[in-house]
Amino acid sequence: MNPAYATGLPAVIRGEEAFLAARRAKRMQALLGGAILLVCLVAAAWVSEARPATLWAGLPRIGEYFARILPDLRWASLFANAETEGSIAFWMYRLPEWTALILETANMAALATLMGSVFALAFAFPAARNITPSGFVYQATRRLLEALRTVPEIVYALIFVWAFGIGPLAGILAIALHSAGANGKLFAEAIENADLRPWEAVRAAGGSWVQGCRYAILPQVLPNILSYVLLRFEVNIRSASVIGFVGAGGVGEELYKVISFNYYEEISAIVLLIILTVSCVDLLSERLRHAAIGRLEAAR
Amino acid sequence: MNTPRASGVMNADIATWRARMPAAFGATPARRALRAVGWTIFAVWLVGSLWWFDITPQRLWAGLSGLGTIIVLMVPPSPGEQWVEILQGMAESVAMAFLGTFMAAIVAVPLGFLGARNIVTATLWRFSLRRVLDGFRGVDQLIWALAYVRAVGLGPLAGVLAIFTADIAVLAKLYAEAIENAEKKQAEGVVAAGGGRLASIRFGILPQVAPVMLAQALYFFESNTRSATILGVVGAGGIGLQIAERIRVRHWDEVAFIILLMIATVAVIDFISGRIRRRLIGAVR
């Protein structure tokens, strides 16, 4: 028997019953949540054709595929010339071409980040609630930025390849357009957090709206904006590495080719180069960002 | 220091102050030269890149007019005849995102614990695990999708696996950071009451980090719904395949419809996931 009932005290029994009821309700809720989750999972697995049997049959093939991608390196001939099988030079036999392609990719990302950020900066001032000239302009710019960032880069690239022709230009514009939407929102939020006293001073002294943005708001938010721009560059270098899949320039075209033609070892070589580039950019940009934020803190 | 109170400021005073605080009178020549060099490098890079990528006003103008034609053809958006296929593709995309995120969130929990400083004290092991995770992070989801299409064939399964692989690394890193930020006191309390190491993780740390983990997983579901819409471009299932096909045959009105459908679906998923997130986290805390 439950010890709470053994005491015979009505208050203890009431408390115990309330506790049991609460526990029952919580368990029911957990059970219901679990059931909904299970239904969603089964439905998702059914729609995405991820049946256990297919998955089970596919697993060994995945392992086999990734094992074949890995380079065949041997200790004995690791640093031999490009003719010897098993050396690093043999694995990376087209290093100069790939380096050029990766440089092109990085440059595409840089140019796209610059273009997107300039566009974003121009639209961020009217899209900031505290200094926007009118409610209508605020809504219009906000919705425009939202629409720009919701469409993925690849979709822009697919369309731009038709309009601008195959090549890096389509990729740059696609990434720039998406970055403009994403950064415009962040810039506008940075501006909304700015101190408005300098703004009021400039306006009171007869400065126009543009002069107010330039001399009262921009100096305050510039370190913050620079940090967002660098962060976007990190993101964009990843996007630029795949935008070539649809013919929009960069290392992606080469990667698409080697994966489609099953040039196994070249896949790992290019992917490794991409990883190295991305890591280098990440490290560099992290240091620069900390420097920018440090200046922001010092200015306060 | 006494500033000159007289109404007229002497030139000599200005000279004194210029000598004392040069920074207040504008940039020094050295700084100005540095700035000029910086701007020159920037201009050279910009012009060089424009030349490298062959970006000329004529090309931009021709492209923009082509884009104008496309946009005119996009209005009005229409679902076309195969609208069932489009809806199926959209459902496939959402299902791929859900399944991939769910699997990644489950696998990332033990990895997160293994990567956390306060759980695993072997620095070398933790350091190498973190570096491997960082390396995975550098590979875009589309690269994974393309590789999985080669490994398991065309279809949504490749997309699920791509989302799963790309997310494990990032989620495990975020989980490890959440675990490192958890309070030690509860875990110590469990140990003091006679619990083992596993019990202290289960009852001391997991309850603290579970809401954070759940919130992160839901955020990832939202962002994966966005990326699952494009994985089909490389053949990994979902709406991306439909949009790529329609762009290839230039059915721009159907393309516009699919883009609008994508935007609407992402907005709906964001809304639902935001509600769940607020509710679960509010209930747990």
UniProtKB/TrEMBL annotation, chain A:
Keyword annotations: Cell membrane, Membrane, Transmembrane, Transmembrane helix, Transport
InterPro entries associated with the record: MetI-like (IPR000515), MetI-like_sf (IPR035906), PhnE/PtxC (IPR005769)
Coiled coil (residue ranges): none
Segments forming domain ABC transmembrane type-1: 102-285
Main location: membrane
Membrane topology field: Multi-pass membrane protein
Family in the record: Belongs to the binding-protein-dependent transport system permease family.
Pfam family, one: BPD_transp_1
Spans traversing the lipid bilayer: 30-48, 100-125, 154-177, 267-285
Name of this chain's protein: Phosphonate ABC transporter, permease protein PhnE
Transmembrane helix as UniProt keyword: yes
PANTHER family per record: ABC TRANSPORT SYSTEM PERMEASE PROTEIN P69 (PTHR30043:SF1), PHOSPHONATES TRANSPORT SYSTEM PERMEASE PROTEIN (PTHR30043)
UniProt-annotated location(s): Cell membrane
Xref: SUPFAM superfamilies: MetI-like (SSF161098)
Automatic annotation (TrEMBL), chain B:
Keywords: Membrane, Transmembrane, Transmembrane helix, Transport
InterPro entries hit by this protein: MetI-like, MetI-like_sf, PhnE/PtxC
SUPFAM superfamilies, per database record: MetI-like
Any Pfam family: BPD_transp_1
Lipid bilayer topology: Multi-pass membrane protein
Residue stretches spanning the membrane: 36-53, 60-77, 97-120, 141-164, 201-221, 228-244, 256-276
Keyword Plastid: no
Subcellular location: Cell membrane
Residue span, ABC transmembrane type-1 domain: 90-273
Extent of the signal sequence: none
PANTHER family membership: PHOSPHONATES TRANSPORT SYSTEM PERMEASE PROTEIN
Membership in a protein family: Belongs to the binding-protein-dependent transport system permease family.
The name this protein goes by in its record: Phosphonate ABC transporter, permease protein PhnE
Gene assigned in the entry: phoT
